[in-house]
Design goal:
The complex is a heterodimer of chains A (about 260) and B (about 220). By secondary structure, chain A is of the alpha/beta class. Chain A has a single domain (about 20-255), classed as TIM Barrel, CATH 3.20.20. Chain A has helices at about 45-55, 65-70, 75-85, 100-110, 115-120, 125-135, 165-175, 195-205, 220-230, 240, 250-255; strands at about 20-25, 30-35, 35-45, 60-65, 90-95, 110-115, 140-145, 150-155, 160-165, 180-185, 210-215, 235. The radius of gyration of chain A is 18 Å and the shape is globular. In chain B, about 20% of the residues lie in helices and about 25% in strands. Chain B contains four helices and 13 strands. Chain B has an eight-stranded mixed β-sheet, with helices on both faces. Chain B is globular, with a radius of gyration of 17 Å. The chains are: A alpha/beta (about 260), B alpha/beta (about 220).
């Protein structure tokens, strides 16, 4: 009757691998670029979110892609429009520089807050937000690029290099109370060449919290690779879903057939 | 009318929006005395069990009076754990004791033995070193234990969204269980008192169905 493994059979958990749709939002519209550049319009956030929900997406991320650069707050209006219509975990990132920005996003309907540039420049923000909203609400986003045989961190929407190493920073973020790591490969972003499985596995095996792999999804087998070889707990994609080339439903069927635990609706 | 208790434990926005989409009239009462007008009460919550201290003593009394009037009560996440005797997470704060049992931490130190053909690292709940990941975050399946008004229309194996580190034991009040290292109570029900460990407001259509079952019980 009690939750101790000694008195009962230890059950192998069949927690699903999550498929997450990312909506990169600028001025209220979804945009998508390649390697963080050349942004194109890809539609209305609420309309896309509704479609993904019908197809069985597990989670939605709204990323205000230009917020840090143009010093704008995450779009409360977009958050509200999406959270009013779909009842799934919703993460919001982009331009969250302090507690007040996080509070505004959560009040508009976000469940989780993604912090990137601000987490690096003021790491104590991770524990402040985790203390106030719980670790499950704090996602530290890391944009990494291969350089000299290492995974270097870039900030400010991939425009500014740092001297920090992605694996070492992920470990520190987890220690400070982050609930998940959203790990994007800048080299693969928008290229459809597949996720960077080496990068993902390096981070995933170093920390005890879930890793969301991002950047490079081009076909269904790329997801199989990142869930097995890359050891990712969740995979995030944008362009593969936006233009209705592939449905979330077909992706999940593909994964299920390959014995990867997923939520089928 | 549904009273959604705001006691400072996480945000109520999601629960309110989900209930609104189902056409419910929801209020967040300012004082415990306002609960006497409610037809149904929902205690949400996320985070540490200690947050339930904010419900003492006025809200506790008003909620127990609501249950005595045979009106439906739903606890979500920490709100469900609060229906029990208490939790190891904050032993100094007693629960509502409507259901018996103590909530306990998942056994993260136990090595996960390898069953079937899924290897550690290839499952979202297991670390690459073969241990259970805690907190339990993500979509997991709900197994129907017995007939229930709360889970009416839910199929065995339907998935719901969890995020928690402590869980309630499977007792006679458990109507839906979930395996995560051990079997724990994902949904409980006794007469008009119900609780869910997962977040129905974040569990898409399955979650909305459960919330609408609660609303139907209220009306």
């Amino acid at each position: 009757m009690y939750l101790t493994a000694r008195t009962t059979t230890f059950l192998f958990p069949m927690l699903s691998k999550r498929i997450i749709a990312c909506l990169d939002v600028r001025d209220g519209s979804v945009v998508k670029g390649i390697k963080f550049k050349g942004l194109q319009n890809a539609g209305d956030p609420a309309t896309l979110a509704r479609r993904y929900n019908r197809e069985g997406i597990d989670e939605v991320v709204i990323l205000d892609v230009t917020a840090t650069i143009e010093k704008r707050k995450a779009l409360a209006k977009t958050i509200h429009a999406v959270s009013r219509e779909i009842f799934l975990p919703l993460c919001v990132g982009g331009g969250i520089r302090g507690e007040s920005h996080a509070e505004a996003a959560i009040e508009a309907g976000a469940d989780k807050i993604g912090i990137n540039t601000a987490a690096l420049s003021q790491p104590e923000l991770i524990s402040t937000l985790a203390g106030r909203y719980g670790s499950q609400a704090v996602i530290v986003a890391i944009d990494a690029k291969r350089e000299d045989g290492r995974f270097k961190i870039y900030v400010r929407s991939g425009q500014q290099g740092t001297s920090r190493d992605a694996v070492e920073w992920a470990r520190e973020a987890a220690d400070r109370g982050a609930g998940e790591i959203l790990l994007t490969s800048i080299d693969r972003d928008g290229t459809k060449l597949g996720f960077d499985c080496q990068l993902t596995a390096a981070v995933s095996s170093a920390i005890p919290i879930p890793v969301i792999a991002s950047g490079g999804a081009g076909n269904f087998d790329h997801f199989v690779d990142v869930f097995t070889e890359g050891q990712a707990d969740a995979a995030l994609a944008a362009s593969i879903f936006h233009y209705a080339e592939h449905s979330v439903e077909d992706l999940k069927t593909h994964l299920h057939e390959r014995k990867i635990p997923v939520r089928i609706i | 009318m549904i009273a959604l208790i705001n006691y400072g434990a996480g945000n109520l926005t999601s629960v309110r929006k989900a209930l609104a989409s189902l056409g419910a009239r929801v209020t967040t009462p300012r004082t415990a005395a306002d609960l006497r007008w409610a037809h149904g009460v929902i205690v949400p919550g996320v985070g540490n069990f200690a947050v339930t201290a904010a419900l003492e003593p006025n809200w506790r009394t008003a909620i127990l009076a609501h249950v005595d009037r045979q009106l439906p009560l739903l606890g979500i996440c920490v709100g469900m754990q609060w229906l029990f005797d208490g939790s190891e997470e904050a032993p100094e704060h007693p629960g509502l004791k409507l259901l018996s049992g103590t909530c306990r931490l998942f056994p993260s130190e136990e090595p996960v033995s390898n069953h079937g053909d899924v290897r550690p690292g290839e499952n979202a709940g297991v670390t690459t070193t073969g241990r259970l990941k805690v907190p339990h975050v993500g979509w997991n399946s709900l197994h129907l234990v017995k007939r229930s008004w709360l889970l009416d229309g839910i199929a065995d194996g339907d998935q719901v969204y969890f995020t928690h580190s402590f869980a309630a034991p499977v007792t006679a009040d458990c109507v839906g269980s979930t395996p995560y290292g051990v079997n724990f109570a994902a949904a409980v029900e006794r007469d008009n008192v119900a609780g869910v460990q997962f977040h129905p407001e974040k569990s898409s259509n399955v979650g909305l169905r459960i919330l609408s079952n609660f609303l139907r019980r209220v009306s």
